[in-house]
Every structure is written in C-alpha cells, then in structure tokens.
Amino acid sequence: MALPAHPDAMGAWRTIQGELRRLVGESNFEIWLAAVELDSWDGAVLSLKAPPGTEAWISGRFRSIVEGAAREILGTAVTISLAGGSLDAPSPAQAGPQIDSEPAALHPRYRFEQFIIGQGNRLAHAAALAVAELPGQAYNPLFLHAPPGLGKTHLLHAIGNYVTAYGGGATVRYTTAEAFTNDFLSALHHKSLAPFKRAYRHVDVLLIDDIQFLASKARTEEEFFHTFNALHESGRQMVLTCDRLPRALVSIEERLRERFESGLVADIQPPDHATRAAILHKRAELDQIALADPAVLELIAERVTDNIRALEGALIRVVAFHSLTQKPIDMDLATEVLDTMYPSHGTRQPTIAEVQSIVAAHFKLSVEQLTSASRASRINWPRQVAIHLARDLTGESLPAIGRAFGGRNHATVLHACKRVSERLKNDQHTVDEISALADRAAGGRGDRDY
Predict the structure, then answer these.
(1) Is residue 219 within 8 Å of 123, Cβ to Cβ?
(2) For 211, 244, 262, 306, which has the most beta carbons within 10 A of its beta carbon?
(3) What is the pLDDT at residue 203?
(4) Contact in structure between 118 and 273 (CB atoms under 8 Å)
C-alpha cells in the first residue's frame, strides 16, 4: 500500500470507517466495506483500494454514502477514487453479482487467532472451532446469539476462513439473511430457482448472519426451511447468528425455530474488564498504534462496557483525535475524548421516575397522563409497560411501584406485569420495543434479554 501523503490520513480513514459502519449497518459494512483499504491521501483526493472484482459493486451501491461520510469528516472539497478510478455508478451489466457468482468475501482479519477469549464467549468460541475442524459432525446447526457488537460475525468469518484454509477443498458460503432474501426474490423474478438452489444447497458449509431478518417473510421462510433440510440431510454444516434466542423469534415459523434449536445454541455475553482490555491491546498491536501511555487502553476498557464495536470505536476516536491534533496518545488525550461520550460514572439502577419519563416520551404522553386514573387504551398499555419495566429494572417493591403510579395496589401492578409478559411471548414488535426501552432506561448498557 502506498504511504499516505497527508499525515492525518490513517486516523481520518479510521474515523470514516466508524461512520460508515454506523450508516450502513454491521452486516453490510463487514461484507462490502471492511475490506476497503486506504491507498493514499494527498489532502484533496482520498484514494481507496477494494478487493479485486468488487470495485464496481461497491461503487454502485455505496458511492454516495462513502462520499458523504468522507466529506463530513474531511471537508466538502475532498474527492474519492477507488482503485484508480472515480466512484461512478456502474453500467447495468456491472450492477451486481449474479446469484451463482462467488459468495460474499470472508474478512481476512476475522480469524480464530485474532479472537480474544473471555468468560462471556468461551462456549461460543469452542463450539465455533469444533465446527470449523469437523464440519457437519460437531454441532449442526450451530446457532450463535448475542446483542450486536459482541463478536458473532467475527466467529462466523473465522469458521469460514479456517475451513477455506484447512478444509481440504470444502466449499464455504457466507451470506446474510437479507442477502438470502434478495437472492431468492431475484431468482423468483427471473424464474431462475435452479442456480439459486445450487448456490445455497450444494456448499459444504453455509454461514448465515442475522437470521432474525427472515421474520415475517413467508415465502423466504418456506425456501429457507427447505434449504435447511436439504443441507442437514446431506450432512452439510450450517452456522447461524442472531441477536436473540430462537424461542424469542416469535415472528418466525415454529418449525424453523425448532430446527434452530436442534443443534447447539451458544450465547455471547458482554466482555468483562480483562477481556475488554485484551481486545484493545490486540487491536493496538494489529494497527501498530503508538501509545504514549499504555494505561490509555485500561481507561477505555473501564469506560466503555457496551460491546466490542463500541470499545474499538472509542479507540478509533482517540487515535483519530491524536492524528488530527498531533497530541500524544496519553491519559490526558484519552480522558478528553472519552469524557464527551463515555463520562465516568458508576453503574446504578434507574429510578421509577426515570422509567416513567422514558416510557411516557416514547408513547408521546406526559408522566401525568401515565400515572393518572385514565383507563383509555392509548394510556393503559404504556402504563403497563412502564410498570413492567419499573419492576424489572428499579429493584423497588410492588407497593412502592403502585404508589408511584397513582396509588395503585399490589394486584394492579401484578396484573400489568402479567399482561406485558403475555404479549412478549407472541409479539415480536413488543419484544423489540420493550428491549429498546429497557436498554435506554438502563443507560444504554444493552444488558436486557427479552
């Protein structure tokens, strides 16, 4: 790779990557943009290099997003080039890969040797390695679940990279549930189901990310059901990732949920402090980050507890700030950067009043309406949600919760909690909505599992 001509280039590119990850989502970023590298920057033109054969697709699909992110960070005068050519939209013939083309590229950095093992991911790592060593014989399917940003995609790519390197010619296909859906719909539209089936049913290892996106897509679920059966019956390996347990996928057919649970279901928990610190040390080593004070990594690990993506994002911000200001990466710089996004404070339970405020704002009500005697449906359900969350998050007694909601009694509080629990069993929208509210009330820690 050519040396960047501008001293701020690498830090700025890392900042752009962080913004692109946020804009396009984890899966799209990992599939298409993570492998794009900085080639050079002369202060006016940012030259990027993509893996061979992907330039036209990346250019056509992500041109405006890449340009927007770069100009937001570097200034409106910057121009972008990709592999020596401008990011112009491709011709119709170049618009995208056909269904029987090569599957999405595996991320070369996502390997088992780069995965930091901790208490929260030990089972998932061991299961993934066992599957990579003995596809179709260890755990089939392997179902990995965790909130976003905890390493599911890393393990998925690690399996693919391992099988590709040591699998004796075994074929691997990595995709996402969204890409599977799009491929299937395209095959239906062009009456070309045979190539679609060859692409997905004749591989030795099928890796599918974000399986939750199959929810409420009846025809795609039907096709995936048959794809699953065809692979399983022929002894081919499947590995699926999801942001929740199979039983929580209430919008997916029961017969598919049962198949997801028929192998091994392994979860990944948020990393503890020691694991977070080890991840940062590994990232700093891989990126050859010059630290004026190694204690910076311990400070980031202490402050950022949400997930690995946020952890690495915080390190990227510190490095970018160093690159743009030329200040050394020491405790003063790290504290200055982290204080804006991750201020130092102890973990605490939310109060009932805080829960009420968050729920009322979400449902566009006032706290007074939420705690009033009104039994109107537009108020009653939000009130029940708030009571449920207050019981789950605050540690307050049922009588105390009842008093905070207009003097309601113990039985009313229990009834509200029961109503919410019943709906959580059968309504995916409610699962997602209450999980988001719980996360917000808990300070964005992402530690609720509904």
Answers:
(1) no
(2) 211
(3) 93
(4) no
* Domain locations along the chain: 9-94, 112-267, 273-341, 352-441
Global confidence as pTM: 0.59
115 closest CA partner among 105, 125, 123: 125
pLDDT digit string, tens, across residues 24-41: 776 667 777 888 888 887
Pairing of strands 237-242, 205-209: parallel
For residue 385, give the nearest of 404, 366, 370 by alpha carbon. 370
Give the count of beta carbons closer than 10 Å to the beta carbon of residue 345.
Answer: 8
Rounded distance between C-alpha atoms, residue 374 and residue 367, angstroms:
12
Collapsed DSSP state (helix, strand, coil) of residue 372: coil
Question: In terms of Cα–Cα distance, which of 239, 235, 276 is closest to 143?
Answer: 239
Q: How far apart are CA 447 and CA 256, in angstroms?
A: 26
Query: Which CATH superfamily groups domain 9-94?
Result: DnaA, N-terminal domain (3.30.300.180)
Core vs surface per residue 358-397: b (16+ CB within 10 A) or e: bbbeebebeeebbbeeeeeeebebbbbbbbbbbbbbbebe
What are the structure tokens assigned to 104, written together?
A: 């999405």
**pLDDT at residue 268 greater than cutoff 60:** yes
Number of residues that make up the chain = 450
Residue pLDDT, tens place only, 153-179: 999 999 999 999 998 889 999 999 988
CATH classification number, 352-441, choose in 1.10.3720.10, 3.40.50.1220, 3.30.230.70, 1.10.1750.10:
1.10.1750.10
Q: What are phi and psi of 407, to 5 degrees?
A: 75, 30
Distance CA 276, CA 301 (A): 5
Residues 243 and 274: beta-carbon distance below 8 Å? no
